[in-house]
Specification:
This is Phosphoglycerate mutase. By secondary structure, this protein is of the alpha/beta class. Helices cover 34% and strands 20% of the residues. The longest helix is centred in the N-terminal third of the chain and has 16 residues.
Length: 202
């Protein structure tokens, strides 16, 4: 399904249109649609479905039509994440060298998830959440570029739960849904489902 403006039918469109186009923006996405996971002991073998590949390519094409210039492509080392990044690049007409990064894998953030239910507004963000955000923000592609980072639903949900201080179940991302993040002065701005949050000290 597609929205009236021609973007694929997921919530990433609103996030991208709300992001500034005069600075480098980090776009953190869940991978595209995959086959079901039947083995809980080996959850990373499930690959993208043909529809998932088309979704990624459609997003890249839509970003290109919007005049969004894409910069670097980074991914969790898991195949479906790499293939999602490659599909977005292909759709946008880019030849992309997708760089796998352990900091985008769920095991990197998994220790912080155990403490989410006890996290309070007065607490500092977990160091691994801060490091993950710094990693993405440091990949600055210059003015008017979107840096694409592809990871997993649990990874994205973990960051969102700490930032927006809501139960992790309220932030469960759909396939190919993501948040945008950029610097504005001494603050970092996060955009997600029409909402923004300002954070200092990142």
């Amino acid at each position: 399904m597609q929205t009236q403006s021609g973007a694929p039918g997921f919530r990433t469109e609103e996030t991208l249109l709300n992001a500034p186009h005069d600075r480098s923006v980090a776009l953190l996405l869940r991978h595209s649609a995959r086959y079901p996971i039947f083995d809980d002991f080996d959850p990373y073998q499930a690959q993208l479905t043909p529809a998932g590949v088309r979704m990624a390519e459609d997003l890249g094409r839509w970003m290109g039509r919007q005049g969004m210039r894409l910069g670097g492509f980074y991914s969790s080392p898991v195949g479906r994440c790499i293939d999602t990044a490659m599909g977005i690049a292909r759709g946008a007409g880019y030849w992309a060298n997708v760089r796998p990064e352990e900091k985008l894998s769920f095991p990197y953030l998994q220790p912080t998830r155990r403490n989410i239910i006890h996290f309070r507004a007065s607490d500092p963000l977990p160091e691994r959440v801060v490091e993950a955000m710094r990693f993405m923000l440091r990949r600055n592609g210059g003015l008017s570029t979107f840096q694409v980072f592809v990871s997993h639903d649990s990874y994205l949900a973990c960051i969102l739960a700490h930032v927006f201080l809501e139960p992790i179940e309220d932030h469960w991302p759909e396939f190919l849904e993501g948040m945008a993040m950029w610097r504005e002065g001494d603050e970092v701005i996060l955009s997600w489902r029409g909402r923004t949050k300002r954070i200092s000290g990142i």
